[in-house]
Amino acid sequence: MPQVRIIKKYPNRRLYDTEISSYITLEDVRQLIVDREEFIVRDAKSGNDLTRSVLMQIIAEHEEHGQPIFSAEMLTQVIRFRGDSLQGVMGSFLERSLQFFLDQQQQFRGQIGSLVGQAPWTLLNSVAERNMELWRSFQQGLGGGAPPAAKARAVKARGTKAGSKAGSKAKSQ
Question: Pairing with 28, which of 22, 35, 102, 159 sits 20 to 30 Å away (CA)?
Fold first, then answer.
């Protein structure tokens, strides 16, 4: 089992990564999260766990730039739930909802990946072939059956059978 990375937070608000023996930024911590590195942030003096507050700080900084994830209304509702008897239920509900969303996203990416994983021309050719088959089926439905080549073979076969029947009648007479 991999060892959990320890990051110390000093009173001057600097973060120190004990694994690489270097000071890091909040953006470096965000990258650890993206890279799925396990870590814990500890107060350098007391040893208290500060992980959640650092994560909240990263979220707050990123919400200020670009398209925010959390609307003001959603944040207001979360604040209202703080201290409510349903606070614990709200947290587990949000966790399960997010996990469900991530599972659906992964499934969707897998489906798209199976389509896009093909070379572009292969994908276009397979779509074109499928469209041609659908068009042929449509034409067969309008024409009352087999495509022209199949109809020609059927007429030729009927002619051969008719000729052999006529030949067998002449022989019997």
Answer: 102
